[in-house]
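User: Predict the full complex structure for these chains.
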Amino acid sequence: MKITVANLGNYSVCFKTIFENLGAEAVLPEKTNPRAIEEGAKLSPELFCFPLKVNIGNYLTAIKKGADTIFMWENIGGSCRLRYYWQIQEKILREAGYNVTVLNLNAKNLFPRINEIRKKNNISIWQTVNSFLFFLKEMRFIEKLEEKAAYLRPRENKKGETDQILIRAIEKMDKIKNSGELNELKKEVWEKISKIEINKNAEVLRIGLVGEIYTVIDGAINLDLEKRLGQMGVEVYRQMNLFYHLKKTVMPWIDWKIQKKIMPYLKSTVGGHGRDAIYELLHYSKEGFDGVIQLLPFGCMPETTVRPILQKIAQEKKIPFISFSLDEQTGEVGITTRIEAFVDLIKSRQKHNIKSI
Amino acid sequence: MTIGLPKALFYWKRSQFWEIFFESLGFKVLLSPKTNKEIVEMGMKAADPETCFANKVFWGHLMWLDGKCDLIFVPRLKATKEELEYCPKFFALPDLAKILVKTPILTQTFDERRERFREIISKLGSKLKKEDFEIEKAMEKALSKEREVKETEEKEFAEKIKSEKKKIVLISHPYNLYDEYVNLDLAKKLEKLGNEVIFVDKIPISSNLSDFTPIIKFHWEFGQEILLQINEVINKDIAGAIEVSSFQCGCDAVLKEFVEKEFKSKKIPFLYILIDEHTSDAGLQTRIEAFIDTLK
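Assistant: Here is the predicted structure of the two-chain assembly.
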């Protein structure tokens, strides 16, 4: 059994490690690239959301490397299409002639399934728990690095230095299998980062990134939006990451709090992270951010439903807002032009001290 | 007092109930007209460009009602009593409607996982300041009309299924099936070509299907129902099947895969038609004519 998982931003490494620690052989797909996306879109149903098409593209590259099992999370509580991903993926790939099985884990079958795998591979309970903890540790490290990078990018004196360190760190994590090695790497990376020269007085714009988790997290999908904005002198804030997402599944009262805050605008869940986008926009406007960008896959049901509400709030609170739908036809230049225009607008707005959009 | 009722989306899920219910409560009901070009254009301007076509039509109806009545009724449909959910786009309809129109919105959450339909209706009635017995009476009247219609429909279906003509199953959501402007009168077009059209949601589900295990378990009310209904007619000498889906319908993207699989496994020809504001009459005519020709 060779297991694979679709790319998810910088997190792919963590998934590989946890599979290997549980005694399975794991292969990662190639980095998401336009060719993979194109191949995936060819096989996928035309109207399905963009992440599925990218996933299929990823799997195809992994299958070439010998993968025969695919890990896909089944979101049994959600209202959006994510819960049918594994069935559709299995159907598409089998119909295309690939002999693969999709390992669908969900909140109900997670523990029994993991237990099964553990017993088959002769792994002790202690080791299993440890590998989960290690997974979380790696995840948090990546997220902290990303947060730090968002702070450093607009301020660094030598452009691109932060990203170099970030990329190296992720590459090195590929070979790390235990906590001791991870701690060493952490020390090394944080030391390097502390040496980056920054201009503390730089005028930095603050922009919040809201929207669907996959498009927000994965730089290969959103055309490295965070990096681009960083190089334009924008510090990007983003609440949504994998840890936050997991935290919300374990602690449902976070969602209740969010619902309470957004009550005047939306009185119900709409599936996915629809409510979070509204909550975050309200938060950013309260904090006096310079702008908010929403990212979503083309036709994403929750995000398109809340978009009119977001636009309404942005108008009310007088905060610049722009929304990008991403799909296999998204052109890099088109997005770049629009981002540049958006940032220019914010800058001129500040220069003339205009309070309305 | 006049209550406006948009003739789109949720209206078609219970096309008799709401009008009779509000009228028996003593209100005047203003039903928006049949979908027309003007309404679709209004909806397109008002709606989010990426939402589904059915939704855009709904906003058009809402804009038409705006200012013509005292209240507009937009329920928040969440779940049926079988614990199956509606499309997530239905969850936010009243909130989005409030942004769009100036007329106050009358709304009520229909989550039958938590409350029974009767309780929800009585809550809705008390929002309109009506007594319990009045609400009960109005509801009974509306429900009995619904039952009556269902019985005649079942009789019609029994006749249709015996027909000698080529039988074609039309699969879609009620708001696409019965809105003649939206689906460009597809049913009539098929009938003109000499076929018997069977609407999927008119197919009665017989009770002996409790042991039926579908190829996929949907959490959407229509998904499970449509698969059951297809299973009901699939062995009854069906000549072909046509699925109509509005552009950017997220649920249909999933549903279509499995509906198509069902028909293909029985070697029944299947046609998938996407409709949106740009669908042309002649284009559709050509496609269905070609499809009918392949059925021989």
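Chain A touches chain B through 35 residues (CB under 8 Å).
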